[in-house]
Amino acid sequence: MAFLDLNDVRKSFMQATAVEMFNLKVERGEFVSFLGPSGCGKTTTLRMIAGFETPTSGQIMIDNTDITFKPPNQRPVGMVFQSYALFPNMKVADNIGFGLKIAKKSKDEIASRVEEMLALIHMREFAHRYPYQLSGGQQQRVALARALAVQPQVLLLDEPLSALDAKIRVQLRQEIRAIQRKLGITTIYVTHDQEEALSLSDRIVVMSAGRIEQIGTPFEIYNFPQTPFVASFVGTLNALEAEVRDASTGRIAVDGQEIMMAQPLSGAVTGQKITVALRPESISLNGDASGANHLQGQVEAITFLGSIVRIQVRLERHLFFFDSFNNPHLSLPQIGQMVTVRFPHEACLWLSAPQSEPAGD
Amino acid sequence: MCVVPAIVLVFGMLRIYSRPPLALTESDTGTDFLLIAGYVTLSLPYMYRAVDTGLRAMDVRTLTEAAQSLGAGWPTILLRVIIPNLRVALLSGAFLTFTTVIGEFTFATFLARPAFGPYMGLLGQTRAYEPAALAIISLILTWASVGLIQVVGRGAPRQGQLAGAR
Ligand SMILES: Nc1ncnc2c1ncn2[C@@H]1O[C@H](COP(=O)(O)OP(=O)(O)OP(=O)(O)O)[C@@H](O)[C@H]1O
Ligand SMILES: [Mg+2]
């Protein structure tokens, strides 16, 4: 049986349902992210695991013990908050030792454990500072150490990095992952940042409007999205309207230009309008021509983004963009120039329902 | 600050508590109790203000949750987390109360307690120089407690950086 097990968990506030039919099994030592847009119920689910909310129905188990109705202070769970939530009246060492003191550990034991945790977060020399004397990144590391000091069985993090600036965010997320690996602690990480989820997780739970859309490894989530929502929320993509020409072979047409899908379009009929998605990184200007799709269009804009260059191409009606890796020898097309782009068949994803919203950021 | 003027309050008290079943004014202790009750009413807004500001300055909910997830129960959270962080607010509320109450005249006079206010009034009617000395003493006392608020506020870890600002 799984180490952390959420069974048909549901939570509603008054009339509104925040989380519905949440089923998740997390193995011991696994790093799982909850990813989804604002208001989709990530925090609510996390808070139910921590015990700050009680599920309306369903069951939560940790290591075969039902904890659904246990108060938060009796759960083997550590929590890290977006706002750090360090105790302002206590020095760093006392913050880290707080949980141990409550567990009535001996003075020596507390001191050595605090020392150990300070070493883990590389903050030995900050033991005698107050939280307000630390930077945001340092405060969050202390908060992590404080949560880990009592050796919880499950670590919960609710957008721990979103109050920090971009550079620290990347650095600290690697550090969190390294510490998690070292201790082998089962971890749930809430984020609305897909890059964070993709780079950190063993598995990602993509949520939307209180429901799980898909659970899978970052590789599966990114390359094989199972719902239109996942396809459009994870990664950036071009959503194009197409007409089915031959459902059995997967032949479709975008603005009159025919392309092939990797799979037959089961359930679609000839002439039906469908929406397909194209990942910008799988399109190229000079790719291998054999057996691939190609589309012809006019370059409309070229945006320099540092490591990549984003090129916008207009078909008859549709607009799509693709990315080229930047290098000093890159020869870019001119704006207004006609170009032919290529992409493999499997770069084309069928989004069954037409997308009302454009591609993510 | 008080919605009901002190004079109204004290007459109300006298009317109710000078006859059975609760004849508190019969004894000194009873009257002391009435005086304290009156002063509590008088200083409640100040105290409320101070504590309210203190609570707003910290994220009580998240701090409570953090402490809970570390295994703390309610008594521990209150004693080790909330109250220490309210220290400055509580003390400044207390000093404000002290400065209001020390010069209070109405309650003390009508309840006939030998408090500082009536004492000053009495001396003013009968002596020549002592009232001046008393006035200076009360001024010093008041200023000393205002000063103490500043000192205590400076000692708090959170306001450390703002010590220079007034
Ligand atoms: N205490 C509450 N009372 C009523 N509704 C609530 C409460 N807490 C959350 N909700 C509602 O439940 C839904 C899910 O909220 P939740 O905080 O879990 O979202 P989230 O996924 O964490 O979003 P974000 O990324 O913005 O933090 C929201 O629609 C929210 O309005
Ligand atoms: Mg949230």
Characteristics:
heterodimer, A: 361 residues, alpha+beta, 6-stranded mixed sheet, 5-stranded antiparallel sheet, 24% helix, elongated, B: 166 residues, mainly alpha, 7 helices, binds adenosine-5'-triphosphate, binds magnesium ion
Quick overview:
Chain A has 361 residues and is an alpha+beta fold.
Description of the structure:
The complex is a heterodimer of chains A (361) and B (166). Helices cover 24% and strands 33% of the residues of chain A. Chain A is of the alpha+beta class and 361 residues long. In chain A, strands 6-7-8-3-9-10 form a six-stranded mixed sheet, with helices on both faces. In chain A, strands 13-12-11-14-19 form a five-stranded antiparallel sheet. In chain A, strands 2-1-4-5 form a four-stranded antiparallel sheet, with helices on one face. The longest helix of chain A is centred in the middle third of the chain and has 18 residues, at 166-183. By secondary structure, chain B is mostly helical. Chain B has one domain (6-154). Helix content of chain B is 74%, strand content 0%. Chain B is built from seven helices and no strands. In chain B, helix 2 crosses helix 4 (74-102). The radius of gyration of chain B is 20 Å and the shape is flat. Residues 159-166 of chain B have low confidence and may be disordered. Chain A binds chain B through residues 50-52, 71-75, 77-79, 81, 83, 85-89, 98-99, 102-103, 130, 132, 143, 146-147, 150, and chain B through 58-59, 62-63, 65-73, 76, 80-81, 84-85, 87, 157-158, 160-161. Bound molecules: adenosine-5'-triphosphate and magnesium ion (MG).
